[in-house]
Fold this sequence. Notes:
By secondary structure, the chain is of the alpha/beta class. It has eight helices and eleven strands. Helix 4 packs parallel to helix 8 and helix 6 packs across helix 8.
Amino acid sequence: MSEAHVLVVDDDARLRALLSRYLAEQGFRVTTAGHAADAREQMRSMQPDVLVLDVMMPGENGLSLTQSLRTGQAGLPILLLTARGAPEDRIAGFEAGADDYLGKPFEPYELVLRLRAMLRRVAPSPSEPAGPVPLGPLVFDTERAELRGPDGVVHLTGGEAALLQALARKPGEVLSRDWIVETLGMDESGERAIDVQVTRLRRKIEADPREPRFLHTARGRGYVLKPGV
């Protein structure tokens, strides 16, 4: 994890330089980009392990870039940076496909902790038992955190994959939001993020997300995954 490659995308040159230096001191490999087009060009020749992305940039903004990246690089962990920290702004970020959200100004070490938590969520865990979990015509591989269907791999964001993995490892058991937040290494705003991720997951695994067959809400208690064919 200490050798993870971070791509920092922000139009503030001073912040880019500060984060590049600080993250390097923390053991990360760092590449920077000043805007979305620059980031796209960088990613043609390299694949970062995690993306730190400013929301408010000239040209294509961070939300648009996040949505676009989810089409071809669904598993790339993305953390959004923004000076706009209202709940609706956070929700918009998660709806776009971000895995985490950090408001400006922030403590650099908090960013490091969040990046490490995101990388842990997407890292394989050899201590966990492997085994396919049937979800109708889909099958989720708990070890690889990979969802497959008749047409091949179904793209999941890093956050979606981590959430489905946590639920799939305890099928039929109601998992509280607090437990999920702690297991996935999320902060106090994680409960709302989990609700957003659940909504997104249902769109991908349920024939009718409004009448879920597999991913159920236990009112006042949390969520439960009930596999089946």
